[in-house]
Design goal:
Layout (H helix, E strand, L loop, with lengths): L2 E6 L8 E5 L2 E5 L1 E2 L3 H7 L8 E2 L11 E2 L2 E2 L2
Antiparallel strand pairs: 1-2, 2-3, 4-5, 6-7
C-alpha cells in the first residue's frame, strides 16, 4: 500500500504529522520520556506511545469505516 500524507502542523521536517497506509493511520509525534507516565501506560514490548496534539485530528478523514470524525 502507498503511504499518504494527511497533514501536519509544522514545517516539512517537523512533528507532528499524520499519514494513512492501507487501513491504518500512522502518527509522527513527540517521544514520551516521563517515567511516571510510561509506568502508568504499561506499554507492551515492541510498542511505543507518542504524544500527538488534538489539533492534528483535523487531518483524519471525515468518515472512517462508518465512524464519525473525532
Amino acid at each position: 500500500m502507498a503511504l499518504r500524507f494527511l497533514g501536519g502542523d509544522s514545517d516539512v521536517n517537523g512533528s507532528p504529522r499524520m499519514y494513512e497506509e492501507g487501513g491504518d493511520f500512522l502518527v509522527q509525534g513527540y517521544v514520551i520520556e516521563d517515567p511516571e507516565l510510561l509506568q502508568q501506560l504499561q506499554i507492551p514490548e515492541g510498542e511505543t506511545v507518542v504524544r500527538v496534539p488534538k489539533s492534528l485530528m483535523k487531518y483524519l478523514p471525515e468518515d472512517v469505516d462508518g465512524a464519525a470524525k473525532y
